[in-house]
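pinning this so it doesn't scroll away 📌
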Amino acid sequence: MKWLSSFRARLILTVFPVVAVITLATLVLAEWKFVGAYKRLFAEQFESQIGGFTAAKKKRTEALSVVLGRLAKSPAMLKAVEQDDFASALQFLRPELEELTSQRLQSELPGGAVRGGGFGTRGDGGSDKVGPEAARGGPRIPLSQTPYIAMIDPEGNFVTAQRKGPAGGRGAPARMKEENDSSAEFRRKTGRMQWLGDRRLEDILQGQQVGYLRVEQGEDSRNEQVREVFITPLRDQESGEFLGAFLFGLPLQVLAERILYEQTKRSEFGEIMSGVWVEEGLVSTTIPKESRQEIAAQVAAAIQQSHKSQREITVRVDGVKHQLFYRVLNPDSPFPLAAQVNLYPLEALDRELAELRREVGGLGLIALLLALLLVLWISRGLSGPIRELVEGTHEVEQGNFDVRVPVRKNDELGRLAASFNEMTAGLALQEKYRSVLNAVADRTVAQQLIEQRGTLGGELRHVSMLFCDIRGFTALTEKMQPAEVIELLNEHMTALTDVAYQHGGIVDKFVGDLIMVLFGAPVSTGQDALRSVECALKMLEVRRSLNEISKHSLEVGIGIATGSVVAGCMGSDQRLSYTVLGHSVNLASRLCSVAQAGEIVMDAETHEAARELIQAEPMPPMQLKGISEPVHPWRVVAA
């Protein structure tokens, strides 16, 4: 334990935490920058992908809105819907919409997929299944790209086609033949837009809207697709009555998703997987099926909790931690939200961070060892001078102020030794001053004696004297215990002494319950009379404040006189007292005895100096004891 208190141990215990903190800070900063760069890399990939998606969406929307709006106003279309003849409505829509689908495929899919206005073969030489229009010689569209066309009634239900009965009444419902109903290839899990809740479709579908649906390809297939759907309202052109809507959905292309996955799969950081979150589910060709449900739930929770259109969260895929970015594709849409989702594994990042921690930790240990060797080498040159300083300090504690330590070098320790010697010399001089301080009654007088300014042995000075005496003190204290009397006086004198010092006064003496304060000796401020009156006013104020909290209430009377007096130190060789003598001293004492409780009485000269500060009234001329001539005092009536 003694070694722990040594300088060497303290130096080691000081340096080691510093090195450890610097190492830790370096590690934290490096990790922060490394993780930031890693995340920026994938954020840029995400922004690039979402930017391309947004641009393509805008282009598609602008191109399709005009055609779909035109179809919604077609008289034949509106007539069929009004008569609930959805079969005719769909037959009217299908050629136009399938032509739009074919045009989109030719413009967006890679070359070689479309030949002769339709799809016949795949790029690998095999054959694709084709949509139902192939049998009629129309544009051949792969089943996976077949447009999703559906009718929606005013209540928000997906409706099947119905034909009129022979008498003009509605016949029994009958689903259209599959070869004539392309939407039959895509089975939804419900026939109603459940997200409508209590809302009416007419209220939220004021104009054409773009939304996203999750559909199943084939009745028994587990493959899902995300369809970008254009929902176009149908209204009677004359009355404006809401008749329902028709839905045109095209699959979102996953080509960019696959390309990004294949490009990054071979990188050292791991593959970037993508998908689209829609209708509480996740549709993806790169994210494992068994993980999609959990990831979709976490995305849904994040969107619901944060209400942010984009965010990044941490998820687990196949037991591996991944960072997930998402951005809502339709934040302002009244329809269900959909979000583009990208995620990448953090396994490579964790490995890099572990390697970074090992490297920085190893460097930190090396730094600690080097610091230890350096401390041991430096401490050998420091311990000797420091030991001498410690021994000198012990001598000073014993009262030996004559001790000195050798100054060996002109470095920091040498200057410290020199400062120590100067300190002990100052302490020795301070001890000599102590006798002077014990011989005087006021700190200003003591300072004058120390600096040897002025003639404290006796001089003629123009001084204002203030006497403050407690009224009725004898009657108040005759039945009090001595200790209580002393406590009362100490409280009173302490407060009034502070006031005197605040106004530049010198406390000359305490005589029983009286305090005598000088203004102008041994040093004059040039406004001694004015300061004495200000001090008297403050004394009355402080005394009134003390009366509110003190056990005993005291009243004082104050007398002030200004004039020439003899000032100097008087007494014996062993004890000195700085005081003043003269006519004005006696006058101030007599005026104090004249002042009633709470009054300030002053001579004419003091009043002349302070007349702008106070309002005073002359008192009748009076003959005071020890004063040969009548005195014309003034009483303060207001400040």
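📌 and the second one:
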Amino acid sequence: MDFGFVKLAIATPVVRVADCGFNGLQIENLIKEAAERQVQVVCFPELCITAYTCGDLFFQKALLDEAENTLSRLLEDTKKYHLLSVVGMPVTDGVHIFNAAVAFQSGKVLAIVPKTFLPNYSEFYEKRWFVPASLALGNTFQLCGQTVPFGADILLKSGVICVSIEICEDLWMPHSPTIHHAQHGANIMLNLSASNDVVGKNTLRRELVLQQSLRCKAAYAYTSAGFGESTTDVVLSGSGYIAESGILLAEHQRFTLDNQLTISDIDIERLSIERQRNTSFTTPLATDTVKDDSFRRIAFNLVPNKKSAITRVFNPHPFINKATLDTDCEEILSIQSAGLAKRLLHLGIDKVLLGVSGGLDSTLALLVCVKTFDLLKIPRQQITGVSMPGFGTTNRTHNNAETLCKALGVAYREIDIKPACLQHFKDIGHDAAVFDICYENTQARERTQILMDIANKENSIVVGTGDLSELALGWTTYNGDHISMYGVNASVPKTLIPPVIRWVAMQQSPEAQAVLHDILSTPVSPELLPASSKDEIVQKTEDLVGPYELHDFFLYYTLRFGFRPAKIYFLAQRAFAGKYTDMELKKWLHIFFRHFFRQQFKRSCLPDGPKVVDISLSPRGCWRMPSDAVAHLWIEEVEGL
């Protein structure tokens, strides 16, 4: 099972201007290398058989004939490799010369796609030599003794794989051909380019490729001419990028003097799910004059892939982008505080309170409240952090909660819940020496009751502290910490909370920094069971339900893409290689699905809270699931891994 991955490569050969034989040999060597590395589709630059910078030599019949002869040799010498190859070359019908892409496989030319838009400005003079695709005299072409489909209306199809081709300038136009290709099924887009370099242009090119892949919800492979092209007036650096729905997977090294082959694995299944979920994408454009039946779909045979061939690197923390982490942390806090600010203004309330435990979740919620009140220019003393020590509260967390409130300048109140809980045990006939679920949840519900009643008494609202990961696992007490008047952390996964706190800590006083860093190093725990004789936390959440980094990984791929358990397990094996054994991954994946399905009833009645990352479990937003759905299908697949 390949789980929908296609191994795609971009190649930039070293060329000699007008030396087709030399260029063809470089292309052949790269195709051979690609085949040995189990590549299934490889794309070369624009006019790479002749070189792009031939100028008026394109009018020389000797060059045009030798380009075709070189292609003939390539077809013969590479037919044993079976991968789909696309190269750039000039072709002529005897009347016109076209700047074209030629797709071939196993010695057969599958299609010729001419360039649609020809640049004729600044350093570009393509209309001097070539004509656009619209001037083609027919829809077939004679090349290398074969009658070949010809035109810009061609898609290459193999099962669910649909490959489209455009050339350089086509990408830069407002009506890029790939827009129509995507609307009619193309999910892998190839761009053969020869784009010269000036300061800043590479950044623009990269962003353009990323945006096109995102807009089209497709893989976009772009490869440009490099070393060996004429430098009379311009330099071409051999830029190249492989992108998937807005994510850069791989990139050429620029200005190298050697042949380049850059490879990545495209997740076609992921792209298909993106398109299925986006109803705007699947709805035909009202202004789209290109009809589905106007495209010719040429069949090709995709070389079978193997799981062992997949070398793509998967981020073990998909909610965290290290490259943009500081900006993301600031934005997360801003989204949370803007949501809370609107709620307070709407209610006409200038007070909030929340339970502070000295743990990650309540710390983030408190920081959100502080930012909100600063934004609204309300004194921080209107925020009340309520510490409610219970049977498992340690001195470390208790002291951290108090110290943090004072360091941030918010009001602090302490209410010991043990007497009330003992009275409750007596009332319901529960033995206080039995540390069961009743023992634990009594404390959680007592804390929520206290907060709600104080809020009523003081015309305030209770800010919830529970996070997305806890909601996914149901690791929350129904009608206890499950309930609040506004849950600022409801869409923040556990793995994202430490980076945000760490980012905020850098901007705080030394005292606040010290306590925040100690909170970050404290084990995650609800502290509902008695501490050890050394006053240490014994109830560690991750020992019970599993590592949150795994559950966040499982959650991301379950909700964001709907992947089946076997694929999530496959991705986790690669993302966490060397950290968790296969048996550990299977164990925690089993627990994830069991908890996720059994605890939906808690999510079906969640309080309001802002969406922060691109998934949410709100029943009013991203996730609508019946509370009594069964997990047999998912559990059985996990058990069979």
